[in-house]
Amino acid sequence: MSVLERLFRRATFPIRMLPDCIIIGAQKSGTTSLYRYIIQHPILLGSNPKEVHYFDDSYHKKLGWYRSHFPIRSSKMCIEATPKYMFDKDSFRNLKSFLPDVKLIATLREPVERAYSHYKHVCRGMRGVTETRSFPEAVRADLDVLRKERILGNGSREDTYYSYIRRGIYAPQLSRFLEAYGDRLLVLRSGDLFKSPVSTMKDVFHHLGCEPVKIEANVYNQGDQEEEEIPCREELEEVFEPYNRQLYELLGVSEWWNY
């Protein structure tokens, strides 16, 4: 976004929209694909950029700053997608206070695959941070944090970049949003989005109150979905097993990942 466009957006914030729907997570679980599928609908517009990071990193800024990221008010609807919202402790409180009636979507990925994808993402460089440890070393460090009974993120560097295990412990993250938002929160499996995007998006459009439309189905960030042997996978599946059971109970399902 150019400086002139940024200034124009901030000058026109009073006539700009607030989001009708927010994709809150999870990181490395298909949020980019979901966002791009949604904005293929003719009455659904996206924020600029996709990840606004208002309720986690920028809540100290004024409302005009947040509105400046959205389109000028019209009969259409708009969305944003910041995957950190689901994991971050303060984001829930801020979001509930500011947008208590907004619709939410969370897409969840099998947690071991999510952890390894997250690790590779940081290894490639994430906002200037690069992971240098092996995957087993990196997850052991996050398990040490988990043993201190800290799951939700607090905005620290450690939580922002290196929360490989804790971000995949979904039940404590989702339970807060489900209690506050109820059926305004739609929970998806990322595998369904990747394998059956057309039928999955019918559910999404129904959740948003829109007539389904035909989408151009592509998996964005497709290289991240390739099958790859994950180091210490069996050990991590054991780590996640009790947390997965918590998720199943929360969602009222008997299984979720098809192990």
Helix content: 40-55%
CATH superfamily of the domain at 3-111 and 170-231 and 243-251: P-loop containing nucleotide triphosphate hydrolases
What is the N-to-C order of secondary-structure elements (H for helix, E for strand)? HEHEHEHHEHHHHEHHH
Count, helices: 12
Please outline the major beta sheet.
Answer: 5 strands, parallel
Tell me the strand percentage band: 5-15%
Class from helix and strand fractions? alpha/beta
| Spatial ordering of strands, largest sheet | 2-3-1-4-5
Residue runs with pLDDT of under 50 for 5 or more positions: none
Number of strands: 5
CATH class of the domain at 3-111 and 170-231 and 243-251: Alpha Beta
Global Rg: 18 Å
Q: The CATH topology of the domain at 3-111 and 170-231 and 243-251, please? A: Rossmann fold
Per CATH, the architecture of the domain at 3-111 and 170-231 and 243-251 is: 3-Layer(aba) Sandwich
Silhouette: globular
Task: Provide a concise account of the structure shown.
The protein has a domain at 3-111 and 170-231 and 243-251: P-loop containing nucleotide triphosphate hydrolases (Rossmann fold).
Annotation keywords:
Rossmann fold; globular; five-stranded parallel β-sheet; P-loop_NTPase; glycoprotein; 12 helices; alpha/beta; Sulfotransferase domain-containing protein; sulfotransferase activity
Descriptive account of the structure:
The chain is of the alpha/beta class and 259 residues long. The chain has a domain at 3-111 and 170-231 and 243-251: P-loop containing nucleotide triphosphate hydrolases (Rossmann fold). 45% of the residues lie in helices and 9% in strands. It has 12 helices and 5 strands. It has a 5-stranded parallel β-sheet with strand order 2-3-1-4-5, sandwiched between helices. The longest helix has 19 residues, at 233-251. The protein starts with a helix and ends in an 8-residue tail after the last helix. The model has no long low-confidence stretch (mean pLDDT 93).
